[in-house]
Structure formats: structure tokens, C-alpha cells
Amino acid sequence: MNKTAQVKAPTIETPVHTAQPARESNIDAIVSYFESGIKPASVRGELGIELEHTIVRDDLSPVSYHGAHGVEWLLEQLQASFPQTTRDPEGDLLGVARPREAVTIEPAAQLELSAGPFENLDEALHTFEAFERDLTEVLSPVGERALTIGYHPTAAALDLELIPKRRYKFMDLYFSERGPFGQRMMRGSASTQVSIDYWSTADCLRKLRLAFALVPLFSLMCDNSPVFEGKPRTHQLVRTEIWEKCDPDRCGLVPGVMDPAFDLRHYAEYLLDTPAILVPCRKEQWCYSERTFGDIYATRTMTRAEVEHAASMFFNDVRLKTYIEIRPADALPIPYVVAYAGIVKGLFYSAANLDALDELFAKVSAADVNDAKAALMAHGYEAQVYGRPVAELADRVMELAHAGLSEHEQPYLAPLAQLVARRTTLASLSEQHN
């Protein structure tokens, strides 16, 4: 660790290499946490949706957290509709909320709406459109706007100010010594994330594997980053490269997840054997540590809150908490967000479609997923993925998603379905217009 770094991080003083007498109980605690997310078979599957916005001035220059009409000011304006607030120990406003909707800020003041769970796409569309109207009403009079795009349109990441949140300072410190992409992820990127339920351990593991197999396809369909570090991108799927090079310890594929023998114990061991970055600390709120969670909690069983925190410190393409979070999509305009959520719903909440996806991706390995990402970054819709043209796979995925939705919800797929049919993306269309 760079001893001259400006952020001085308190650490928890225990040996780096220790025996772990509590290891089995910690594995059990993590597995129990995952299993607590199992929904009764009688419960209909729901969707959680998170959409990050990049706040800019009308000339597309950055808007930071501080200052006149900064994101702190924006959160204050939203308080009338979102009365529940979250502040740091110094009193800085970090989020506002109301039932089933939370507005939070990402490391460089990207504004996220996390909403749901939703039983239907009508409700999701209404919620996100209403929030966009709220943002426009506040921002437009002061010459600002909220963009739904995968990467900041004008700024280099390191020129963007971090918000006053202690954990982000430590994460920035950690990522800065693992190459440039972690800091770019934190400051420059913005995403759309969709979360789904599971009904058993077997259902959870099946959906995890299928979601990872679908990640390259979702990344292509939802590619919306025409600019990287203030310049036109040099390849497709910018978000894919950022996350592939961010931190191999905690990004990309969960090790072993494509193996049929993979289970929740393997997932728990992965969490325990990865550097923590941050752990809750009574004196300082957060303490920095490069030791593994297994070493930090070597002699006692983790609490549920500690397990929840550990799970949150991983940024895989698909992440397991008490739901499955599918994470590869760029931030998208609202009609495309709902279309993407519709694809996920149609695929993962249809028993027939799960069977079809099992057959479609039966032989896909971890190496195949990584090869697919590389092929799509280089060739887009001209690529071969899993031994066949990606365009054919994308058509099949859209066909299955359409069949998995009700007749009422099928039209919501149209925005992304049209892009797939044209073999193009929002990012490519933006390049053509600029």
C-alpha cells in the first residue's frame, strides 16, 4: 500500500495470516444469508430495478456533489417527495427515500434510483418516468439535466470529485493501486441493474449460471457508452472492459460458477478468501483492510450485517445477495430500461424458458464467457459467441423473452427488440449522429 497516500486508513490490528477456527461457522452464516432470500413457491417473481443518472450542465460539463446547484442541492430539492434521509457522520446528505424508492449517490455523484420490487412492467415504467419528471422539474430551471448514459460524456474520471463518503475514499485508494480502471468505474460509469428472486437453492444456482452465460449478450444489447474519458470510444462495450480490468479478485465471473458442482458453500468460500477493502469499525465507522474476510473474522462468526457488507464489496457481473442482481447493462433511457427488465422477467420467470436457456447454454464454460466478451468488444454484432453468430443468439433470446411475457407486457420489449433486429446499439447510433 502506498504509504504516502493522502487518505490515511485505520486498520484492524490482527495478523495477516491466521488460522480460521470460525471458518465453518462463517461459511454457514453466509450460506444461511443466501438461503434467507428463498421465496415461497406461491410468491410471484418480482423485479428490482436500479438506474444511475449522470448529472451535467446543459453544455455537458460535470456537476459535482458540492457547490451551487450541485448534487447535494439536488437531493435537498427532492426531499419534499422523498422525506427519509441518509447522512454521513459529518451531516452530508447522501440519500433520500420513500417506500419502495431510494435515491442514493455513487462515488462521483451519479444519482441512482433504486425502486421496486415490481410485479409488473407498468408499475416500473410509471415509477421511473415520474422520477425523470421530478429531475427535469428541478434541474431544467438551473441549466442542468440528468443523462442516462453508460459513461460520462465529457470528463476524464480522475477530474471528477468524489462525494464525501468514507467508504468511497478507501475504495478509491484500493483501486488506484490496481490500475486505472477501478477509479474509472467508480467515477465515470453508470449502469442499469435488474434483480430477480429465486425459489430454492437449486433455482438460485441455476439462475446464477444462466445469468452469467447471458452477460455478454446483455452487455451488447444494452451498450450505451459511445464516449470514454472524454473521447470517442475505441471499441464496443466500454463497460465490459472497465469491469474486466477493475479488480479480478471481485469482478467478472464468480470462480467456478459455471461448473455444475458449484454450490453456495463455494460462493461463501469465495467471499471469505477475497481481500475485504473495508470492514465496519466502531471507532472510525469504516476501517481499511487488505486482509481477507476469512482472516478478519477468523475467530468468531460473522453477524448478518457483516455478511451483508461482505457481499456488497463484490462487483461481479452477477451478484448474489438475498436476490440475484444482474449488472452488465449500461445506464439506459427509460423505455430501454423497462425493455431490459422485460427481457429479464420473460427469461427468468418462465419455467419453459429456463429449460430452453439450459439447453442453449448447456456447454458454456467460464472461458467461453470471457471469450465472448472479448469477441463482442472487438466485433459487436459481427462476432461469434458460444460457437454461433451472436446475432442468432440475440434473436433467440428476444424470442424467448417475448414468449415468457404476457400479451399485455410483450410490447415493452420493442425498444431493445428493434435494436437487435437492426444489429445495432444505442452507442453505435450515437456515434453515427456525432
CATH architecture: 2-Layer Sandwich
Extract low-pLDDT stretches: 1-17
* CATH fold-level label: Creatine Kinase, Chain A, domain 2
Secondary-structure class: alpha+beta
Write down how many β-strands occur, each being a DSSP E stretch of 2 or more residues.
17
Work out the count of structural domains: 1
Shape call: globular
Tell me the number of helical segments per DSSP (H or I, 4 or more residues long).
16
Q: Give the C-alpha Rg.
A: 21 Å
Residues in helices, as a percent range? 40-55%
* Spatial gap, N to C terminus: 42 Å
Could you name the CATH class? Alpha Beta
Q: Hey, roughly how much beta strand do the residues contain? A: 15-25%
* Mean pLDDT, all residues: 93
Main pleated-sheet profile: 9 strands, antiparallel
Describe the structure.
- By secondary structure, the protein is an alpha+beta fold.
- The chain has a single domain, classed as 2-Layer Sandwich (Creatine Kinase, Chain A, domain 2).
- It has helices spanning 23-35, 71-78, 121-139, 166-176, 181-188, 201-221, 238-244, 264-272, 293-296, 304-312, 334-348, 351-360, 366-379, 390-404, 414-422, 426-433, and strands at 47-57, 84-87, 93-98, 101-105, 111-118, 144-147, 191-196, 227-228, 231-232, 251-252, 275-281, 285-292, 315-316, 318-320, 324-330, 384-385, 388-389.
- The termini are far apart.
- Mean pLDDT is 93; it is low at 1-17.
